[in-house]
């Protein structure tokens, strides 16, 4: 595991902890920093981190607090407070 991958994992944990503590701005900064590191090093973000961040506003999503999760035929729809939607298939 490279230094960049370790840093992204650490930032993902920090973003989750900041979101749990209701510090949305700090969580957003961690998400932006993790994305910037991934882009510079041509890495993909961890699967779990990708699912719980909004692509439009870089918010760390917490279902029930700032995100709505709905099941539709064959996919999960996650709607952020900013109005952006993400759809993920499931079987």
Keywords for this entry:
3 helices; 91 residues; alpha+beta; globular
Describe this structure in words.
With 91 residues, this protein is of the alpha+beta class. The protein has one domain. The chain contains 3 helices and 3 strands. It has helices at 3-20, 24-40, 47-51; strands spanning 67-72, 75-80, 85-89. Helix 1 (3-20) packs antiparallel against helix 2 (24-40). The longest helix is centred in the N-terminal third of the chain and has 18 residues, at 3-20.
**Arrangement of strands in the largest sheet:** 1-2-3
Strand content: 15-25%
Structural class label: alpha+beta
SSE succession: HHHEEE
> Low-confidence segments, ≥5 residues, pLDDT <50?
none
Rg, rounded, reads 13 Å
| Biggest β-sheet description | 3 strands, antiparallel
Mean of the pLDDT scores? 95
Which range best describes the helical content: under 10%, 10-25%, 25-40%, 40-55%, 55-70% or over 70%? 40-55%
Question: How would you concisely characterize the structure shown here?
Answer:
The protein is built from three helices and three strands. With 91 residues, it is an alpha+beta fold. A three-stranded antiparallel beta sheet has the order 1-2-3, with no helix packed on it.
Any chance you could write out the topology, listing elements then pairs?
Elements: H1 3-20, H2 24-40, H3 47-51, E1 67-72, E2 75-80, E3 85-89
Antiparallel strand pairs: 1-2, 2-3
């Amino acid at each position: 595991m490279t230094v960049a991958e370790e840093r992204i994992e650490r930032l993902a944990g920090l973003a989750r902890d900041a979101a749990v503590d209701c510090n949305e701005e700090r969580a957003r900064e961690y998400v932006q920093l993790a994305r910037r590191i991934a882009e510079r090093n041509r890495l993909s973000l961890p699967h779990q981190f990708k699912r719980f961040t909004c692509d439009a506003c870089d918010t760390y999503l917490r279902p029930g607090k700032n995100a709505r999760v709905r099941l539709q035929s064959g996919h999960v729809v996650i709607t952020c407070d900013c109005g952006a939607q993400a759809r993920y298939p499931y079987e």
